[in-house]
Design goal:
There is one protein chain. With 466 residues, the protein is α/β, with parallel strands linked by helices. The protein is built from 14 helices and 19 strands. Strands 1, 2, 3, 4, 5, 6, 17, 18 and 19 form a 9-stranded mixed sheet that branches. Strands 7-10-11-12-13-14-15-16 form an 8-stranded parallel sheet. Strands 8-9 form a two-stranded antiparallel ribbon.
């Protein structure tokens, strides 16, 4: 391993900003010292990176991706190889993907299948959550074993009856098991039973365009499910993490719970901060590009989400990266919005879009790092190995140019999908160089990584709990 010194940059972590040089050796951060200090000047290295005028930030931790995910008769377009490469281009150095239990099969089968997909293929480090599709005595017992193996979070769905859906009794049992073994329950909070009624009614009335996907998945059905999940977690004495929060009403439910001191957490995603139902209504079936669940909301919800991020009622921004090409995949839903594969690309854009949130005055620089790096790492048992720049941490480091101008486009992104959800959007800030465990995977706007560099990371339990 080469010895590397990063000189002259502004080091930004969730805790502080400081002009410091960073010494990297044997995949880890060895030391930080003031840039003008005798200590820093005395360092020698095989490679020196000049970060003058740049930010030196921790690699991003995206705790919600779906590489190669099966959905609606097709598969997410990014493999672990293409998806982690795109993540690296965007300054993300760790993903936590979702292994899926197939109904009627053991958790172990699903986890083993995802290890086979990812092993030897990732450009950056990765970990897994486990999706529980079939809560029974067998899968509840298996949860204990997975926690011991570093798979310490479990996702359940109140949506998608017949596919991933769990009823309230199953959810309660899983939460009780999580309370006992330390596993964190992640919840897709939408009332899927009611949504299916509204889908059936809309299609019967000839409302088939993509925009109706948003209209039937009502904000009230997100907030109702969020409220119900919180109450079930209270009964179980369990912590709760609500994924992809999109609606002001759902944020209000989380805020009330947190004001009571409950261990309830929430994430949102860039699509809910920057896009809206206006995109779902784009003509000529273009709205299909923006079909995801929870759905995009009217623009006025964005202010509540940004406010939740500032007040810490929302703690994390993930991507829910689950890309389907417009041609041949999203088009499966022409004439029936319910057949449009649910998901959007975004793993490459998250760090840049959140920096634009800094530029636009929504959040501070330190909060940017907190919601994109440090808190995801703490939430899912990766800190301080990931999510910060400190002696002993993995040398997952991004040199970020805060003044660079770029235009997001499918022509220039590296995700394996034929459109960009942010096509033509001008943003300020761009990744320049990315180190993953001390090795450059992006070097001066060039990809120098390789499939297989990324390693599986065993996680501890949520670090926000006693």
């Amino acid at each position: 391993m080469p010895r590397t010194v990063i000189r002259g940059g502004l080091v930004i972590t969730a805790a502080e900003e400081t002009h410091a040089d960073v010494l990297v050796e044997d995949e880890r951060v060895v030391a930080l010292a003031a840039s003008d200090s005798d200590v820093a000047r005395g360092w020698t290295a095989d490679r020196t990176i000049d970060a003058t005028g740049k930010y030196v930030i921790p690699g991003g931790v995206d705790p919600h991706t779906h590489m190669e995910m099966p959905f609606g008769g097709t598969f997410a377009a990014d493999t672990f190889e293409t998806g982690t490469r795109a993540a690296a281009w965007g300054g993300t150095t760790t993903i936590v993907d979702f292994a899926i239990q197939t109904k009627g099969h053991a958790l172990r089968e699903g986890l083993d299948a995802w290890h086979l997909k990812a092993g030897g293929n990732c450009a950056i480090d990765y970990a897994f959550h486990m999706i529980l599709s079939d809560v029974d005595e067998g899968s509840l017992k298996e949860m204990d074993h997975l926690v011991d193996e570093g798979v310490t979070s479990f996702k359940l769905f109140m949506a998608y009856p017949g596919v991933f859906y769990s009823d309230d009794g199953q959810i309660l049992r899983a939460m009780q098991r999580g309370a006992a073994n330390g596993g964190l329950i992640m919840m897709h909070a939408e009332n899927g039973i009611a949504i299916d009624v509204l889908v059936e009614q809309a299609l019967a009335e000839g409302r088939t365009d993509p925009r109706y996907h948003g209209e039937v998945r009502k904000a009230l059905l997100e907030s109702e499910a969020t409220h119900r999940a919180i109450q079930l977690a209270r009964v179980a004495g369990a912590p709760l993490y609500v994924v992809h929060v999109s609606a002001e009403e759902a944020v209000a439910e989380l805020t009330r719970a947190r004001d009571k001191g409950l261990p309830v957490f929430g994430e949102t995603c860039p699509q809910y901060l920057f896009l809206s139902t206006d995109n779902l209504a784009e003509p000529d079936f273009e709205g299909a590009k923006y079909v995801c669940s929870t759905p995009l909301r009217p623009r006025e919800h964005q202010a509540a989400l940004w406010r939740g991020l500032r007040t810490n009622d929302l703690q994390v921004v993930s991507t829910d990266h689950c890309p389907f090409c417009f041609t041949g995949q999203k088009e499966m839903g022409r004439g029936d919005f319910s057949k449009i594969p649910n998901g959007m690309p975004g793993v490459e854009n998250r760090m840049d879009l959140l920096h634009q949130g800094v530029v636009d005055g929504h959040i501070t620089r330190r909060r940017w790092i907190e919601i994109a790096c440090a808190t995801p790492a703490r939430m899912f048992g990766l800190y301080p190995r990931k999510g910060t720049i400190a002696p002993g941490s993995d040398a997952d480091i991004v040199i970020y140019d805060p003044a660079a101008q770029q235009t997001l486009s499918a022509e220039t992104h590296h995700m394996n999908v034929d459109y960009s959800a942010y096509e033509g959007k001008r943003i300020t800030g761009q990744v320049e160089t990315v180190l993953s465990r001390g090795l450059p995977v992006i070097d001066g706007h060039a990809y120098t990584g390789r499939a297989g560099h990324g390693r599986f990371v065993r996680r501890s339990t949520c670090q926000y709990l006693d």
